[in-house]
Design a protein that fits this description.
The protein is built from six helices and eleven strands. With about 220 residues, it is α/β, with parallel strands linked by helices. The protein has one domain: 3-Layer(aba) Sandwich (Rossmann fold), CATH 3.40.50. Helix 1 packs across helix 6, helix 3 packs parallel to helix 5 and helix 4 packs across helix 5.
Length: about 220
């Protein structure tokens, strides 16, 4: 399958690229013109901004699906109160441009990372995450991810937005499960999130009953 991968320099994206290539896909990624990003072997790199619809449409030429690991960034990712280095509407604004570009290019399938606790799943958050969402810049990202999901829901595209629990730097285990709540000990490696996204492409019709909808909350098994 011919894929466009976005966010390939991020925590999940850096795993997406080699996993997609290993699965036999023909992979293209979009990187900023100023970036020194060196893609893994087998990945075609185009230069451009995800906010540029023209650049996206060019990157989408011939594609059959999109995997997006785009996400809001903080100056210090380990500090929930660290200042944002992305616009406060980065996720939703990027989604609007991407949806328009995909519609124009005739590409329908999209897997885009969200987060456990977004939108209606906030009711199942553990108390620690409730605190971060309420008091830190984590909440800014969560509110914008909810808008992003709504943009996708109204797009007419065939989409799924996995909501991972706490992200870790652990290895790919291949053991991922869909859960109804975000428990205090729940966590999943970025590599496993990327693997789940690639594996989702093998599902002929989305969403699977086991997902419970287009926004499955996933964690390490």
């Amino acid at each position: 399958m011919k894929l466009l991968v976005l966010g390939g320099t991020g925590g999940v994206g850096e795993h997406l690229l080699p996993l997609a290539v290993a699965a036999g896909h023909e992979v293209t990624t979009l990187a900023r013109a100023s970036s020194t990003f060196a893609a893994p072997e087998g990945v075609r790199v185009l230069r451009g901004e995800v906010s540029d619809r023209g650049a996206l449409e060019g990157a989408l030429a011939g594609a059959e699906a999109v995997l997006s690991a785009l996400g809001m960034r903080r100056r210090n990712p380990a500090n929930p109160w660290s200042p944002l280095t992305s616009p406060a509407d980065f996720n939703s604004a990027s989604a609007r441009v991407l949806v328009a570009a995909m519609q124009a290019a005739g590409v329908r399938r999209l897997v885009a990372v969200s987060a456990a606790g977004v939108a209606e799943s906030a009711a199942q958050l553990n108390w620690v995450m409730r605190f971060f969402v309420a008091k830190s810049n984590v909440g800014v990202a969560y509110r914008d991810l909810a808008v992003m999901e709504q943009v996708l829901a109204e797009s007419g595209l065939d989409w799924v937005a996995p909501r991972p629990t706490r992200l870790t730097r652990g290895p790919k285990t291949g053991r991922v499960k869909v859960v109804p709540s975000f428990g205090a000990m729940d966590a999943i490696s970025r590599a496993d999130v990327a693997d789940w996204m690639v594996q989702a492409l093998t599902v002929p019709a989305w969403p699977l009953d086991a997902w419970g909808g287009r926004t499955p909350q996933i964690t390490g098994a």
